[in-house]
C-alpha cells in the first residue's frame, strides 16, 4: 500500500512564453524547478524580496510559505494575479506567464576593498573589478553582486572609479562577495 506522506503530490505547470511544462511538487517553488530544467527565467534574491521573478498566474492556485505574502509583492499585485515564482508553491495545475530573462550581462570577479556602515542600514561597499571595467557602468545603474554560494542581491551604484565602483549592499555579507553582473537600468 502506498503511503501518501512519502508520495509527494506533483502538479503540471505550463509556462509561457515557450509552452514549457514542468512537474512541480507541492513543497517546491516554481522558480527552482524551472531553473533546474534550464529555463532562463529572471531572478535575483530567491528569497521573495526583490520581485525579479514576478510572473502572472493565468490559471490555477498557489500558496506561499506560512500562508503570507512575501515582502516583494503587495496585496494589490496578488489580487491582479501576480506571483513570485521563487516562493510560489502549486496547489493545482498552473498556467503562468513569465517575463523572459534579459540577455546575460557581463560578469566580473570582484574584491571588496572597503565597507562602511550607512545610517539607513546596510553598507557602502567599494568594489574593485578583477579585469576590465564593466562597459556602461555609472551612478544610477544597478549591479547584481553575488557570493560564492550563489546568493545574489541587486544593488545601486553610487560612484564609479577607473577600476571599480561603490555600491550600497543591504542583505549580503559584504566580505563574501566574489562576482558582479551588470549593469542594469532598474532595481528589479
Distance between the termini: 48 Å
Q: Which segments are poorly predicted (pLDDT under 50) over 5 or more consecutive residues?
A: 1-6
- Helix/strand order, N-terminal first: EEHEEHEEEEEEEEE
User: In which range does the helix fraction lie?
Assistant: under 10%
By DSSP, the count of extended strands is 13
Strand content is: 35-45%
Structural class: mainly beta
Number of individual domains: 2
Major sheet size, sense and barrel closure: 6 strands, antiparallel, barrel
Strands ordered across the widest β-sheet: 8-9-12-11-10-13
Helices, by number, come to 2
Evaluate the radius of gyration: 19 Å
Mean of all residue-level pLDDT scores: 88
Tell me about this structure.
The protein has 188 residues and is mostly beta strands. It contains two helices and 13 strands, in the order ββαββαβββββββββ. The chain folds into two domains: 88 residues, Ubiquitin-like (UB roll) (Roll), CATH 3.10.20.30; 78 residues, Translation factors (Elongation Factor Tu (Ef-tu), domain 3), CATH 2.40.30. Strands 8-9-12-11-10-13 form a six-stranded antiparallel β-barrel. A five-stranded mixed beta sheet has the order 2-1-7-3-5. The protein is elongated, with a radius of gyration of 19 Å. The relative contact order is 0.17.
